[in-house]
Amino acid sequence: MIAAGIDVGSNTTKVVILKNGEWVGDALVLTGADNRSSVEKALAQAVKAAGIKQTEITQYVATGYGRINIPFADRKVTEISCHGRGAHTVFPGTRTVIDVGGQDSKVIRVDASGRVADFIMNDKCAAGTGRFLEVMARALEITLTEMAAVAGKSKNPVTISNTCTVFAESEVISYLAQGLPKEDIIRGLHEAVVDRIESMALRLGIEPEVTMTGGVALNTAIVTSLSKRLKLTILLPPQPQLIGAYGAALIATNQA
Amino acid sequence: MNNIKELMASKLPPKGKKYLTRPSFYFLLKMLTAFWRPQKDRWPQKISFSFYLDLLYRAYRKKHPVVWTNVYTPPELIWALGGTPFMPEIFAAVAASLGLAPFFLKKAEQAWYSSDLCSFHRGALGMMHSRLVPPPDLILATNQLCDGAIKFLEAASAFYRCPFYLLHIPYPVTSPAQAQTWLAKELAALVRDLKPLLPVTPHTINGVVNHSNQAREYLLAVNRLRQQIPSPYRGREALSDVTMHLLALGTTYGTTFYHHLADNLSERVKNKRPVLPQQKYRLLWLHFRPYYPNFLFDFLEEHYGAVIAFEEVNAVTWEKLSVADFWFSLAAKILSNPLWGQAGRRAAQAVSLARLYQVHGVIHFAQGGCRQSNGGVFLLRETLRNLKIPFLNLEGDCIDERNFMAGQTMTRLESFLEMLEG
User: Fold this and answer.
1) Best mutation site among B415, B416, B417, B421 for testing chain A: the one with the most A CBs within 10 Å?
2) Cβ contact A116–B415 (<8 Å)
3) Residue B8's pLDDT band (boundaries 50, 70, 90)?
4) Do residue A199 and residue A250 come from a single domain?
5) How many structural domains is chain A composed of?
6) Mean pLDDT, range A237-247, rounded to an integer
7) Domain segments of chain B: what residues?
């Protein structure tokens, strides 16, 4: 039985294909302005990686903000349930999932069987999401992948007091104009993101084990800082940005 | 000062304004409505529509003093005084349902009202600055439930240069009986002060009390019928009906509205006509709902078989009013509101309603800027969580559709229902 999970996020579209429950293929492409073509592209790549034909896929579950725009999906499930299921399958001891994606951040409590027990999402504000870091990286003329490494060099991080992304960008520009070292500004930005995530996590209540998913989990500076603040080890799946699609594929497999 | 003058001289919106502010317009509509013969199920809507037309007719005709007041001031007080109660917050919701709220909200923002102010009040202020609401002869504010209401009504008093009265309602904390006696005296003193403008008569009190008590009985019957599974009535409609409960109690409209509604629901239960035959989930709704057109309730029903089984704002929490001791019984009614006072009262009511209506979960609609409601969310959540009743704090806006984030709201709602599905 072959099932596909499709996660249409604000930045990237991810597909994971499972054959009899085994992960056989995946793909990640930029979402862009046209959700459907990015889904088609990601599916084609994942099918190729899995070495199967698309017609062999019998179940599709769509998730992510663009899930409503996938007419052929057999079921549409929120990313909260999918990240919960995916993270719990990778690390069965998981009771709390911290998912930080492009436009949303969520803290999800799951029970012993991986079902969502409670959750919290960020408000309308982009602070505490991948988008915040992206905007700041652009202002600092640095790539997202370089950010974590540069933040690690900081000795004296600045305080970013604005939670609004636009105002925080102005704050960054003003720090640059003052001649402050880039690494201190970048570290300050990381701490601002961690502040938001930590606040949500504490609001909901943390129960170990904690697993982090979503694209921002690739940023080691964020994970390290969050881990220190929460005083616990954060588990990281091999491809954290694919965990939503993996969870969707697992749900597709189970419902077939 | 110039700004205030400009706003007062505002001509917006240009078309139709002169008709909308004439009593003859509402009289004509009232006459036309008399010919409307809806299906039996829709009869309460006809009564509600007629009530609003009559209210606007009365308010523009100015035969009875127009008393602006805030939501949760018992309408019986103003009807008994022979006035016409007008609650601008309710008309902000009406404007939202017609898709007009953004216009009025912008109008209020142009008049220096912060966008952080509750949109019920901003919408009402925008309508006031647009001169599209019947001007008050006097204002009677109460501190129940929110401080923002007093401030916006005080602004209205300055705008229209009309007298402003404030009824101070105590928190029924340590001694509810003492609070009731104190409030009854406050009410009696207020009525004495208002006598030159609103001379109260035993005759009007008698009529108002009878209508209010009858409507209360019918509303109790409606609420009992709504305990049926599957649900015979949509919460979304009941959240609109709440305006009848807030404004029409004490009138024939209030009595007939709830009489017809009780009959309808009784028939639906008897003939097994629930709103959703395949009902899977029953939900309790706290606070008001978004009044602008939105997909939330259709989505809940169609995709998850979920209905709003009941709402806290439709609970009957008060005892019958008494003709012999009107002010004392009115004070008791005011103080019986669980939304007033410590958050624990509200949480206790939520628990009791959740059990009575056998709901699967509770949704608190967290209206932006609503301190009186949002301030108690922690207690609400903890109380319900300790009893293993799932709770969703759904942030949004009842009036300002510009603050409606469709995707985010849907994800929260869907996740909550997926959680209930397990």
Assistant:
1) B415
2) yes
3) very low
4) no
5) 2
6) 97
7) 2-194, 203-421
What string of H, E and C letters represents the secondary structure of chain B?
A: CHHHHHHHCCCCCCCCHHHHCCHHHHHHHHHHHHCCCCCHHHHHHHHHHHHHHHHHHHHHHCCCCEEEECCCCCHHHHHHCCCEEECHHHHHHHHHHCCCHHHHHHHHHHCCCCCCCCHHHHHHHHHHHCCCCCCCCEEEEECCCCHHHHHHHHHHHHHHCCCEEEECCCCCCCCHHHHHHHHHHHHHHHHHHHCCCCCCCHHHHHHHHHHHHHHHHHHHHHHHHCCCCCCCCCHHHHHHHHHHHHHCCCCHHHHHHHHHHHHHHHHHHHCCCCCCCCCCEEEEEECCCCCCCCCHHHHHHHHHCEEEEEEHHHCCCCCCCCCCCHHHHHHHHHHCCCCCCCHHHHHHHHHHHHHHCCCCEEEEEEECCCHHHHCCHHHHHHHHHHCCCCEEEEEECCCCHHHCCHHHHHHHHHHHHHHHHC
Identify whether residues A226 and A194 lie together within a single domain: yes
Q: What is the mean pLDDT of chain B?
A: 93
Q: Chain B residue with minimal CA distance to A106? A: B412
> Could you tell me the residue range of the domain that residue A138 belongs to?
92-236
Give chain B positions within 8 Å (CB) of A121.
408, 411-412
Tell me whether the CATH fold assigned to B2-194 matches the one assigned to B203-421. yes
Q: B120-178: per-residue pLDDT in tens? A: 999 999 999 999 999 999 999 999 989 899 999 999 999 999 999 999 999 987 788 89
A44 lies in the same domain as A132:
no
- State the pLDDT at residue B5: 43
- Candidates B388, B419, B420, B421: best to mutate against A (most CBs of A within 10 A) is B419
Helices B119-129/B147-160 angle, 10° precision: 10
Tokens 């397990």 -> residue: B422
Q: For residue B369, what pLDDT is reported?
A: 86
Residues A209 and A231 in one domain: yes
Q: Are both A123 and A1 inside the same structural domain?
A: no
- B47-95 pLDDT tens trace: 999 999 999 999 999 999 999 999 999 999 999 999 999 999 999 999 9
- Smallest CA–CA distance, residue B361 to chain A, in Å, is 12
pLDDT recorded at residue B15: 62
pLDDT at B6 over 90: no
Look at residue B7 in the predicted model and tell me its pLDDT. Answer: 47
CATH of B2-194, one of 2.40.10.10, 3.40.50.11890, 3.40.605.10, 2.60.40.150: 3.40.50.11890
Q: Is B419 on the interface with A (CB under 8 A)?
A: yes
Domain B203-421 has CATH 3.30.450.40: no
Name the percent of chain A lying above pLDDT 70.
Answer: 98
